[in-house]
Write a structure and sequence with these properties.
Blueprint (H helix, E strand, L loop, with lengths): L1 H11 L2 H23 L7 H25 L1 H7 L12 H22 L3 H16 L5 H5 L2 H9 L1 H14 L11 H19 L14 H5 L1 H26 L2 H24 L3 H22 L1 H9 L2
Helix pairs in contact: 2-3, 2-9, 2-14, 3-5, 3-9, 6-9, 9-10, 10-12, 10-14, 12-13, 13-14, 14-15
């Protein structure tokens, strides 16, 4: 039993890899909210526990929802995956999904019961996503629409995590400027999605609709670079609202230029190594982005500025 679940998480939801990113995401959401409120102190352990555990279980639910949604397609084109090959059953994943929901609602009630209202909103959107908003074929025929409708889940989760700070502090609405952090999360999600679906020609699989397959190398790379640029711009606007524009600009400028170079390199020579660089950079950039806007910015305010 332990080996089955360990294998599943390693293949479909690697806890270490995702955990680091979610740690940064949760810390950034809380600290950015505090910066906007003028609260120049770090969050307490209780708040962070709720934020991190909720985010981790929510992204786990997203993976499980995908397993249900894509089961028929995976069985046809990707039978090597954990669920189609029989390693884990959908019914078992369904119980894990329910367990995650119980954890989330219990944590919300423990920290601040009114949080449950926002939690229900994220559940409702996830339910719609799980059924492709009941227009699966229409969405599948429109990759961009499919992408942005599914990526809206990112700012929704982000809004909930930030509410663990601003709502618990007594505010009845989010602090001014929070919208730019939600935009950052949206484009982080877009960038990660593009990054994981950018493949070298020899790595494409039948039935797998990567962006390089749908649009070709040049257009897919342009889309990734465009998303990176919009992400960078949104981060600067978020930093401007929290009083860290110059600091954040200097901190993220070099990684941004490195990302542009990686994208152009893949466009010129789309091999396996460069495709892997694009995917890995997408994750590292997202990690750097959250740290720069949240914990590092707050530390700068406390100890240097």
């Amino acid at each position: 039993m332990e080996n089955r679940w360990w294998t599943y998480q390693r293949e479909r939801f690697p806890l270490f890899k995702h955990g680091i990113l979610i740690l940064a995401f949760s810390a950034a959401a809380l600290t950015y909210s505090r910066l906007l409120r003028g609260e120049l102190t770090f969050f307490d352990l209780q708040t962070y526990t709720v934020a991190f555990a909720t985010a981790l279980t929510y992204f786990m639910q997203l993976r499980i929802a995908d397993e249900f949604k894509d089961f028929e397609e995976d069985s046809r084109y990707r039978p090597y995956r954990a669920v189609p090959r029989g390693l884990i059953k959908l019914r078992e994943l369904g119980w894990v999904f329910v367990g995650c929901s119980l954890i989330q609602v219990s944590l919300a009630y423990w920290l601040y019961p009114k949080l449950i209202v926002l939690l229900l909103v994220t559940w409702l959107y996830l339910a719609g996503m799980s059924h492709e908003f009941f227009v699966r074929d229409w969405l599948k025929a429109r990759p961009i629409t499919y992408l942005w409708t599914h990526m809206l889940i990112m700012p929704l989760v982000d809004l909930y995590i930030t509410s663990c700070d601003w709502m618990v502090s007594g505010m009845t609405s989010p602090p001014n400027g929070i919208v730019w952090f939600l935009v950052v999360s949206f484009f982080n999600g877009v960038l990660l999605e593009f990054g994981r679906k950018m493949r070298a020609p020899e790595d494409e699989e039948t039935g797998v609709e990567t962006y390089t397959f749908l649009w070709g190398i040049k257009r897919a790379t342009f889309a990734w670079l465009f998303a990176l640029s919009l992400n960078f711009f949104a981060a600067l606007m978020a930093a401007l609202n929290s009083g860290n524009f110059v600091f954040t600009s200097l901190l993220l400028a070099i990684p941004f230029l490195a990302g542009v170079r990686i994208g152009l390199s893949f466009r010129g020579q789309p091999d396996l190594k460069r495709a892997s660089l694009v995917e890995n950079f997408s994750g590292l950039w997202t990690l750097a982005m959250y740290l720069a806007l949240g914990p590092i910015a707050l530390a700068y305010h406390i100890w240097i500025k």
